Amino acid sequence: MTKRRKIAFIRVWHSPPIATSVEQLLINSFPDFQVDTIDIVRLIKDNWWLLFTNVYYTIKEYGKQILLGKKAFKYYFFGTTYLFRKVHAILTDTLNAQKDELAFTFQLQSLFDTSLEGIPHFVYTDHTVLASLTYPDIDPDALYSEEWIHFEKDIYKNASIIFTRSHNISQSLIEQYGTQPEKVICVYAGSNTKTFTGNLSNDNYSNGNILFVGIDWDRKGGSLLVEAFERILEKFSDAQLTIVGAEPNLDNSSIQVIGHIPVDQVHKQYEKASIFCLPTLAEPFGIAFVEALNHSLPIIGTNIGAVPDFVINGKNGYLIQPNDVDSLVKALSNLLEDPEKCRSFGAQGRLLAETRYNWHSVGEAIRENILPVIENHKHTI
After folding, report:
1. What angle do CA 217, 219, 221 make, to 5 degrees?
2. Which residue of 6, 99, 112, 275 is most buried, as measured by CB atoms within 10 A?
């Protein structure tokens, strides 16, 4: 019998930094196994007829939501029950061809069910659809359909273990999806930016540079931050706001809009900042928070989603309620007027990154939970 020493790593896209980070995590954490990576989008493109057929089903299932501008077409394109079934069927055929060699399958995110009958299967995710209902001002009609959510439950049912990046998603899986608690393990996540060397260029936290990192300007609370920052300038005229990722059209000489830059360049912006601020309104995880912790920055974030895992209020930053501009102004003022507090908060955040939010620790936790499952599976076949 062929020795089962192969891992099938299944991700939706190959381009996001998290996709590369998790692939490298598996390679580093399981050096005694071969990691074969499968990109779902590439499989879909290879079956080109799926693209055209799924356009029809996207309009059929979500036409009303698209016309009303609930979400972008691309969001709904990956949420059709048709595509869910087809991707599962294609992956079943693909994985069956190497089934005798597979030790286990490992899936990044929870858009599709990529499990294979008879093979241990693991999911690593930062999101569930129903967790979105915990965010303020969420429109339930904008989410994926009830039928799709029924399929989503199969993802978790068919997994041997579901690894999460935050406790709110673990809670969602248990309370909203009825997943057995012993199948859900929070292992957190690491940073996708360059490893921080410890050299900050922020004048010992006194340069007044506030950093925002995020592409989705509205969801990440960008407009709220600008409103608060304009009030901040009345007291701290030398303060600066640096925006990375998003590209809003702003007319303020104290705001620098850098926009999109390569991921390997983002670390330079963290190193020049004194404060990291992301008053997000919905946050499945938020890797930028991890990057800020890693760069010893005090953090201001909202008390939603995964953010309370990152920010211990009054110890490494401040938690505020969503849409609370007054509290945001107060938190920014407290840090801008006290560089020593910024330094102390930053040091506590760095300690959290070193002990919890790094890929080595995540990999160790994943490996120690996977090995007993696959060892037990070997004795049952």
Report:
1. 70
2. 275
Going by the DSSP 8-state scheme, the letter that residue 71 receives in this structure is S
Beta bridge mates, 185: 163
Q: How far apart are the C-alpha atoms of 84 and 364, rounded to whole Å?
A: 31
| Token pair for 301 | 């974030």
3-class SS of residue 62: helix
Q: CA 66 from chain center: how many Å?
A: 24
Q: What are the start-end ranges of the E strands in 240-315?
A: 240-245, 255-259, 275-278, 299-302
CB neighbourhood size of 238 (10 A): 11
Contact between residue 286 and residue 215 where contact means Cβ atoms under 8 Å apart: no
CB atoms within 10 A of CB 375: 11
Strand partners, 278: 301
Find, among 82, 90, 142, 87, the residue nearest to 109 by Cα.
Answer: 87
Q: What is the pLDDT along the chain (381 residues), one digit of tens a residue?
A: 456 799 999 999 998 889 999 999 999 999 999 999 999 999 999 988 999 999 999 999 999 999 999 999 999 999 999 999 999 999 999 999 999 999 999 999 999 999 999 999 999 999 999 999 999 888 999 999 999 999 999 999 999 999 999 999 999 999 999 999 999 999 999 987 766 666 789 999 999 999 999 999 999 999 999 999 999 999 999 999 999 999 999 999 999 999 999 888 888 999 999 999 999 998 888 889 999 999 999 999 999 999 999 999 999 999 999 999 999 999 999 999 999 999 999 999 999 999 999 999 999 999 999 999 999 887 665
Nearest to 331 by CA among 319, 315, 323: 319
Which residue is it, tokens 């994985």? 95
Q: Mind listing the domains of the chain with CATH numbers?
A: 6-190+358-378 (3.40.50.2000), 209-355 (3.40.50.2000)
In this structure, what token pair is assigned to residue 173?
């899986």
d(CA 190, CA 375): 27
Q: Quote the CA–CA distance of 329 and 321 in Å, as a whole number.
A: 12
Q: Shortest CA distance to 304 belongs to which of 289, 292, 294?
A: 289
The residue type of 140 is P
DSSP result, 122-162: EEEES--TGGGGGSTT--GGGS--HHHHHHHHHHHHT-SEE
